[in-house]
Amino acid sequence: MEKDNNKKSISIVFIGVFNILLFIAMIGYIVIYAVSNKVEMIDNGYNTHQQLLRNQNIRGKIYSSDGKVLAETVTDENGNETRSYPYNNVFAHAVGYSVYGRSGIENLANYYLINSNESLTNKAEAYKNEQKFPGDNVYSTLNTTLQQTAFEALSAHKGAIIVSEVKTGRVLALVSKPDFDPNEIKKIWSDITNDEDNTQLLNRVTQGIYPPGSTFKIITALEYYKENGEGYKNYKFSCNGKFTKGDETINCFHGESHGSLDFETSFAKSCNSSFANIALSLDKSQFSKTIKELMFEDKLPWEMSYSKSSAYCVEGMSDGDTMQLGIGQGTTTMTPLHLNLITNAIANDGILMKPLLLDRVVSNDGKVVESFKYEEYKRLMSGDEAEFLTGIMEQVIEKGTASRLKGLSYTAAGKTGSAEFKDSTSDSHAWFTGFAPSENPEISVTIIVENAGSGGEYAVPIAKRIFDKYFDIK
Amino acid sequence: MEFYLTEIAKYVISGCLLAYTFFSFLVFIYKGEKRRGWIYALQTAFLFLTQFACFIQIIAKTGSKRYLLLLAIQMMVLVMTISLFRIVYPDGNRLIINNMCFMLMVGMIVITRISYWKGIKQFAIASVSIVIAFLIPELIFRLEVLEKWGYVFAAIGIVILLILLIYGSVANGSKINFRIAGISFMPSEVVKLVFVFFAASVLSKNTDFKTIAICSAAAAAHVIILVLLKDLGSALIYFMVYLCILLVATNNPLYFASGLSLGAIASVAAYNLFPHIKVRVSAFIDPWTEIDSSGYQITQSLFAISGGGWFGLGLYGGNPTSIPYVEEDFIFAAIAEELGIVFACGLLAICISTFIMILLEAYKIKNVFGKLLCVGFAVTYIFQIFLTVGGNSKFIPLTGVTLPLVSYGGTSVLVTIVMFALIEGECLVRSDERYQDYLTRRKEELERRKNGKG
Hints:
By secondary structure, chain A is α+β, with helices and mostly antiparallel strands. Chain A is built from 19 helices and 19 strands. The longest helix of chain A is centred in the first third of the chain and has 35 residues, at 2-36.
């Protein structure tokens, strides 16, 4: 009987321990889930807490990294609140808007902007005067001088520009055109949304899907170097303006004949014939792997909406498709953001830093609520490969298509592109992606000017203006 | 001034609750109710401090004086409950009573905040239940005959549930209740108690295979009717309670394991048979894609829990009514939203402390019926909390059961208070056993002495 009672005790202990463990797991889950998803849940449109916070706090200000106000809420004597954007169109896509949904930093930093971490004394003071509490202010990484330079350089063209710091991932400028005035968003909203052809709201940097054209040769060259190593120096090709394999022909830009070329000059002069030839020599499964490692068809470390780029290389692909892939034409597409991230990795010894748009959040009375740290996202290529690419990208400036960046007070490296987007015409998007100074890179720019012509002629001068300005104000 | 009051009250409320929780676990270090006296006194103090701080917050926010009177009356009722119990039942367990009062106090505050009149109604029902509860320990102590009723309890339970099933085919939904003179009454809550009596009574007499087979069949009948009634939460509670009583009665983990696997198979079958279960499960797996339909309740609950932060938005600072049926099924989310995650998790810790205390009583009691009864009640209590809190926080699928003593719902409050009173009754049985032991030991000693002399 005594023994039986002991056994009963064990059963009771078991039931107790089992339930206690269950509760510990549940409490742990509740705490972790609630804390780690807090920001995302506040931003959900179905969350009524957003309205509570808006009624309680005035939306905070957005500042540039050089301390200029990019967005603020102005309250008139009747208590009506208006969101004001002093730079009008200049920061349209970067800062975004906050009525009729949200975009840009207004969306990314919404949680911080609608919360208030002011001191209790200040809040009590405001409460007594029946005022709302001032929300927390957000300092972005954007620089007004560079943003303005990029904005003016793109002038009336459609296109996109992104400028970032390669060692930190901080985005310094982000321009997309056509643009809009966020101050007028209420007035123009119905016009924009009712017109299907209107792409004013589209952020072309992150959502514009373009054929990368010759800028993709960076990736083809990387794959060639991976397969052949220093053997690339033995590469020889003779260009007569076009290259034919089977019944598929690849033409050089405007049918120009480049003559006798080695690997470096093929890249510098952006010879399509030579790169079609190179593409055919590559191992398809290896190439496919390299493409995947560079985040094609994959998510990017970007916290706002963006489009995925796509490039396919499969075993048994036709020679025509292989050659098109090698020169970034055909079905291959990329966003300017993606190309900029790859450029950043090349400039940073192969390591991609997570791109940052927010620097820190500061309460209205000056207390730092949160500061965003530089963070390594992942290694896209080896240091050796990055060095090789930097070398050939320097040659593009020395003796190739980006000669307008030659002989300046700083050195640069980059690649141009003139991407044809219609088979029938010779219209092309002008691309440039590159960084400076080439020996110790600081900033990178990626530019696309839609329907302008060649990259060397239309995109490189914009890069020069931005680089000039950067080294000027530094 | 009001601003400082409400802001500081947030931290005071959480602090008092944590202090209370600390003492509700410190109790276990000291053996014997007499040595625990000072802990209970401090616990009571923190209980009233918590209540007071909550009302300060309410009054500062609403500016309404009617809450002051309510505070005074509620405090009085709780003071009377705690002190009268100590006088009437000096051998009872005071931790269970204190914890019960704490949960009731929190429930009444949160319900009053959601709807003033519902809060008053809840308070009235709780007060009546407490009066009834005072009679129960003495009653159960004297009515040893209850031990022998066995299948009579099963018959009562099944008949009530069957009536509900027939009646329910006319009405709709999973929450069937009868309205008698304006007071709605949920019979399935009461059957919960009868069911524990049945299992404890049958399995305390005999644990041969035949008895177990018949008893399990009767238990399964309860569960199946509940599933047909669409009352999944109750079905799961009955199931777990039965398995735990069976485990303690037989000491055979095989029964427990095979019961669990049988339950798993039955769940899969039920999932495929009943579309409303499928809806619940899909809303659990991904509520976000159906945020405006079947996922609405759960996502609103998640917003509330995460929106409150560590110390909550303060009473009247949040928006708990955005969750449909918040005062019945989602009271935990409302608590987390306005009183904070720290408070909500502390409350769960208090429930655990109650659970451990009931199991300890079960552990010590020699009467097998009493032991099984306590185990059954302990599991009924804790598993129901697990279901509702787990459902609120998307830890498990939603089953729609109430948080005992806290959620709005008269029957639920009454049944839980009665359940605790029954446990107190078993405490009396245990003290009596100890006293009888003491008497026998004394008699033996006296006889030894007499023999020694002779």
